[in-house]
Predict the structure.
Amino acid sequence: MDRTAARKRAEELVSKMTLEEKASQLRYDSPAIERLGIPEYNWWNEALHGVARAGTATVFPQAIAMAAAFDAPMMKEIGDAIADEGRAKYNEQAKRGDRDIYKGLTFWSPNVNIFRDPRWGRGHETYGEDPYLTSRLGVNFVEGLQGDGEYMHAAACAKHFAVHSGPEAERHHFNAVASKKDMEETYLPAFEACVKEAKVEAVMGAYNRTNGEVCCGSPTLQKILRGKWGFQGHFVSDCWAIRDFHEHHKITNSPEESVTLALENGTDVNCGCTYQKILSAHEKGMIDEKYITESCIRLFTTRYLLGLFDETEYDKVPYTEVESPAHLSLANRAAREGIVLLKNDGVLPLSIGKLSSIGVIGPNANARAALIGNYHGTASRYVTILEGIQDAAAAENRRRSEAGNAADDGNGSLRVFYSQGCDLSKDNVEPLSKPELADRFAEALTVADYSDVTILVIGLDETLEGEEGDDGNAYFSGDKKDLKIPPFQYEMVRNVLRHTKETGKKSILVNVSGSALDLSVGEELADAVVQVFYPGASGGSAAADILFGKASPSGKLPVTFYHDEDKLPDFEDYSMWGRTYRYFDGTPLYPFGYGLTYGDCSVDGMEVTVPDAGLVYDPDEAEPAAEATAGVCVHVRNDGSMATDDVLQLYIRDEEYEGAVPHPSLCGFERVSLAPGEEKGVTLAVRARAFTSVDDDGLRLIRSHKFTLYAGFQQPDERSHALTGHECASSEVTI
């Protein structure tokens, strides 16, 4: 059903409603209107990396982990899988009269905010720090979630519009001040792409103010969204954000004033309770009924597009889609692709057949919470990193037994020793132990002594980085104060790594977190460093596949890993200068776009073709995909002895305009599979938009004639060159 037909049906239905009935439908928990055959509907559902908070579902890797895969087509597959599971659950729940929260088909995902500062607790919900990467992954996820059938598979929601990335503790009263240049250059592109290209059905406003206007009642943001970009879907407030207007932002004096400001500026659904005052605001003459009517029409347009009042092809999606073998396999693939190898002195991949013992140490080694991030569903089975290693060891022991290499008494079998090592954040594991003794340190050192190789698994989970706790969350966390490894983990790691070095044994540091930590201790003392982010319910299996060489790592960092936060601007400062790889002038620990493989992939040349007619960019183009493009053919090869995937990346720098982004910016990427010794040509298209720059007034145009394009398996910076031993190929381009 097209939008015109859906809206016409919505207008007809809404015309039969009373004012009270229309007002009731603008709450996130919309009640039934039995006389019109309208069942109750709850708009609040989550699907950041799988259907969330509604029982069993495939738990994919957290968003930041999926971003590390740099795999746009896979994001579309994941969106489609989530929509299938959402439909399967909806069909069964609705049939049984369960229309509660988290049971609908309007998913408040993806989060396409820019992860501008590594201290932001919710950054792991995003696709990282780069607007181009975020837009490509966001568009594909939305397209997969919404589908291209006669009816919408599920409705996606791009959030949080438009400038939102902490601080969490201040979000209910904070004013994010962003220049017109930063808005257009960094904060808006992913939202624009989701609206113009993916036709995202919903957009969610942020809690904070942006340049003085509350995001859920901002005329400036609505002019961009509905005016400039032509957004036709519905707009939803963040949860209890409208209450913040009068309670925290203090820009209104009553709930009725807040309701009026929100409705007159395009907020159709109130996640919260303030819209219970709609009728009061109307009775006081503060709000015209036309705004209530229009919002109601938009919401029922979405319900008609979803086919909720018709028989559709999705009504027969069976419950067997939930955690189907195909979806679980896809989740495992996503976890493998998103694991990033940061350092390898030759210890990886581990030759499991040559090992007699493996030591696994650390608070995240056997923790389910370390797998799932936040906004997650419930898996029927979890595989922690310890369990993944144990499963691999068990398979190796079966192989040895079948080969006759192990005696009946078990001698010659591969042992896995384990110690928690320390608590995630507290001084001791057992509360009655002496804090100065660190009650698991001795055990950790013992495990290291008894093992051929030691794998330390450390990091964070959603209790240490996440959303500020409020009425809608089950925990309290928030932002990080710095980039340091939690102190007792750091002491444990440093002691164990020094001990293994002194005893001549190998060590591997595996970090589980949704954001950058200072991993200098691993870079200095460990033989290998691996970043797994939050890899999903089956993440332990994926990690074991990487550690033991069943798969080559191929993930790339979607964020910069800094040494510390000292050279970053104040967290509250929303200027982009000095932030992310595009504007940071220091030397990072590990750069954006960096990640090693078990192969040895490099670029040895590139050719760029510009259309004879040149490149023209129209900022008002309704279909950006139709832009003119430059063609880039890149010659790649794998000089290593192991087959691998790797991520070919294109970066562009404007060589003339002084106001351009100072460092080369990502403008294209593609995963490439290369066998040992294989060479091939890879062709990518670079849109005309990549050649644009933004002035201080926020106007995006092609202003220059000379550019440099770079191609490589990393970005063209000195630190990446030092870490990989490879340089990017480059080509001057004149248009």
